[in-house]
């Protein structure tokens, strides 16, 4: 595997790990939202019990009226908190959507890079084919020259060729 392919594989592994981390973060946030909804449901259960107590203690309305008003204020605060939680959840969904858009853009960029790499590989294959053909032609030429040298060697003889070779070498 080439270094380029290793780098691409590492980048893909990093992207995959980022996606897994991102998914874990999304799941954690959804768990938090679900827990908050559970708490809100518990609070509504408490409010229902409090209303039941108000009905039981209807005889003492004057004494309990202040408590009922405070309980309504608490419920309003809880509704305000729920609205804020929904706003926060909507913001988180917007952020998640933006992150998915970024991931999609990165995948598009990677696909473009792969297309360019594929094109470059095709060019390299074509060049490699041309180089192989040139090497084969050169090998044929060398074989012909070697055959010619053998013929010359046979015609002139070993002694004559040795003398000529020694003359060409510097002393």
Written description of the protein model:
The protein is mostly helical and 171 residues long. The chain has a domain at 3-121. Helices cover 94% and strands 0% of the residues. Helix 1 (3-56) runs antiparallel to helix 2 (61-156). The longest helix is centred in the middle third of the chain and has 96 residues, at 61-156. The mean pLDDT is 84.
Indicate the percent of residues in helices: over 70%
Classification by helices and strands: mainly alpha
Question: How many helical stretches?
Answer: 3
Low-confidence stretches: none
Largest sheet, described in full?
Answer: none
Strand-and-helix sequence, N→C?
HHH
- Principal-axis shape equals rod-shaped
Q: Let me know the average pLDDT.
A: 84
How many angstroms does the end-to-end distance come to?
A: 51 Å
Strand runs, count:
0
Radius of gyration: 42 Å
Strand content: under 5%
Task: Put the structure in a nutshell.
The chain is mostly helical and about 170 residues long. It has helices at about 5-55, 60-155, 160-170.
